[in-house]
Design goal:
The chain is of the alpha+beta class. The chain has 3 domains: 175 residues, no CATH class; 36 residues, no CATH class; 160 residues, Immunoglobulin-like, CATH 2.60.40. 23% of the residues lie in helices and 28% in strands. The chain has a 4-stranded mixed sheet with strand order 1-4-8-5. Strands 17-12-25-24 form a 4-stranded antiparallel sheet. A 4-stranded antiparallel sheet has the order 14-13-18-23. A hairpin with a 2-residue loop joins strand 2 and strand 3.
Length: 455
């Protein structure tokens, strides 16, 4: 009897140990990863060439990872939260969430294609392969680089049949984000094959896009100045925080928290043929009230083609910036931002898989009380598409790699990347607003129509 009890106890502990080891084996990452981060700690961030390579490898891994139905369910749930009004998620906000027995980031590390430096000399002096390798092999820990890396599914992620459809994964570059030029590029599929996409042709099925978020402002906890912290420490704008950064909704910072916006393209230049003077007499003249306030109302794009020419499908929904110039009072006055309007939940459009149409969106955004003695008798509203990916100056740099997809060589891959030297928003057009205009008036700048209403 004693021997039987002893045998049963030994069998129980043996089976427990075997089961535990099996679980450990299931969670073990099969790639030979280098967990060292010493090189990564020496840099603040990656340059555009390095970012493009990281996004490419990330997209390949994600394409393989979404073969799992559990992962697809997870991504659909997170993306459809529309945390910033668009169909996307910050990778840092979901990297530690557990899916199917592992962290989401561990699934991505598990499916990374082999990373091998080109056998030739360093591709460019600024291409830090060691740091790139350490970043990708350590997706599951807190690092400072690429805090705005995101996974997006433009427009109608809520209609994604995640149970049955395995989407392709693509990544953005300066080239394919430019909407005034047609660019073909590759998307990656779960089986290691590729599919051709075009930045101006809307895909007929869901696509996962690896890019950097345009709607969130991040502040380094260690390096942000005291002034930045005092201005931007806004509880209603705070989205998330981690070991390195605080993440804020940019539009809330600007519109609701007293943040200050930058100019669009520098100092304005007077028009060679300015609008004629307004009528000498109007119902507001001599009756100025500090309570008079101009509001931006009822914005609508003139057509879907106009909207798409401002923001292609890769970049998701539209971001509008309205700046004001009072240069008739002071010809050298710089632009002042008065509104940052991010499209949320398709406010500017209605869409199905096969068609989109424009909608009227009424932001009811206050500009300011208008005192003609201080501001002059007219102002110019200058509209931009708030595009963080536009560039003023371009520097082309190239490198070649010999990538492998799941141990299969796919030949030599060449990159020709335009580095972002200086950011510039995309100008949409100007409109003059006169102090003596009607209290409710419509304006059109060639892309959008809108109303300015005096409250």
């Amino acid at each position: 009897m004693y021997k039987q009890i002893t045998r049963l106890i030994l069998m129980f502990f043996t089976s427990t140990i075997i089961f535990s080891c099996q679980n450990d084996e299931q969670k073990e990452l099969p790639v030979s990863v280098n967990r060292d981060t010493s090189e990564l700690q020496q840099i603040e961030n990656f340059n555009e060439t390095e970012k493009d390579y990281i996004k490419q490898i990330f997209a390949k891994s994600l394409a393989k990872t979404v073969e799992s139905k559990e992962i697809r369910r997870f991504l659909k749930k997170e993306i459809n939260k529309e945390f910033d009004g668009d169909f996307n998620i910050l990778f840092n906000s979901v990297k530690h969430k557990e899916v199917d027995g592992m962290k989401f980031s561990e699934h991505l590390i598990k499916n990374l294609p082999p990373l091998k430096e080109n056998s030739n000399q360093r591709l460019t002096e600024s291409f830090n392969f060691e740091a790139i390798q350490q970043y990708l092999y350590n997706l599951d820990i807190e690092v400072k680089q690429l805090p705005l890396l995101q996974i997006a599914m433009p427009f109608v992620a809520n209609e994604w049949d995640s149970e049955n459809l395995i989407p392709a994964a693509v990544f953005t570059t300066e080239e394919n984000l430019r909407t005034d030029k047609s660019v073909d590029f590759k998307g990656y599929l779960y089986n290691g094959s590729t599919k051709k996409f075009n930045n101006l042709e809307y895909p007929d099925e869901p696509v996962l896009v690896i890019s950097e978020n345009e709607r969130i402002t991040v502040f380094d906890k260690e390096e942000s100045s005291a002034n930045e912290r005092s201005v931007y420490r806004c509880p209603i704008a705070l989205y998330s925080t981690d070991e390195n950064y605080e993440y804020y909704h940019t539009d809330v910072l600007i519109n609701d928290c007293g943040g200050t916006g930058g100019g669009g393209t520098g100092d304005p230049t007077p028009d060679p043929d300015p609008d004629p003077d307004p009528e000498e007499n109007c119902d507001r003249e001599g009756n100025f009230s500090s309570l008079d306030r101009e509001q931006l109302r009822n914005i609508e794009f003139l057509s879907m083609s106009k909207l798409r020419s401002m923001e292609g499908w890769l970049a998701g929904k539209i971001e509008l910036r309205a700046n004001v110039i009072h240069y008739y009072k002071n010809p050298n006055e710089p632009e002042t931002m008065v509104a940052l309007i991010y499209e949320k939940r398709d406010q500017f459009r209605g869409c199905s898989w096969f068609n989109c149409w424009t909608r009227v969106f009424d932001p009811k955004r206050n500009i300011f009380p208008w005192n003609p003695e201080d501001n002059g008798d007219r102002m110019k509203i200058r509209w931009y598409e708030d595009n963080v990916s536009s560039v003023d100056a371009k520097v082309s740099t190239g490198f070649k790699v010999k990538p492998e997809i799941f141990d299969i060589s796919v030949g030599e891959l060449s990159f020709d990347v335009e580095l972002n030297i200086k950011g510039k928003n995309k100008l949409m057009g100007d409109n003059y607003i006169y102090y003596c205009d009607d209290f409710s008036r419509r304006y059109d700048n060639g892309f959008i129509e809108f109303y300015v209403i005096t409250e």
